[in-house]
Amino acid sequence: MRRKVFTFFITLAIWIVFSGRITDDVIFVGLIASFITTWLYSDLLFRSTNRRKNWAFYFKKFFYIILFIPVFFYEAFISALKVSKHVFEKKPSFSPGIVKVKTTLCNVTALTILANLITLTPGTLTVDFDMRERAFFIHWIDVTTAKEAEMRKQIIERFEGWLEVIFQ
To answer: Which long-range contacts (CB under 8 A, 24 or more apart) does 118-124 make?
Structure first.
């Protein structure tokens, strides 16, 4: 019960902060939204785990996440430059296609984040994921190779190593 009350007040506080003002209508709608959110999702927020980790374990994960953010922005910037180059060409030289790229990640959260990172990177879009083969189907704006190892290196390897460390 304490978890539900905690979830209710946290979601209400977030609602008020993001609304930017405190008025009767904001409080009223916030109370309703917080109640519904608490009722539907509080059990998902507080799942019990059998393993307890020390603070250094979580600090290390947080440190790697902070280090990974500039890596993602760098990769997104470089990809945006490559896509921009194609936009300004008189004769388009790109060859779009859907490629299948296997991953070594096993954690579902890491796979989801990897799919989102691929989609957020200009020039690539995650279309599907095959759980049996652990392979992404990715629409790539400029397919430069047919070799799976080279595709893997160009598309997902730069993110995969970081996600393995963060979600081990």
So the answer is: 118/155, 118/156, 118/159, 120/72, 120/76, 121/75, 121/76, 121/79, 122/76, 122/79, 122/80, 122/82, 122/83, 123/79, 123/82, 123/83, 124/79, 124/155
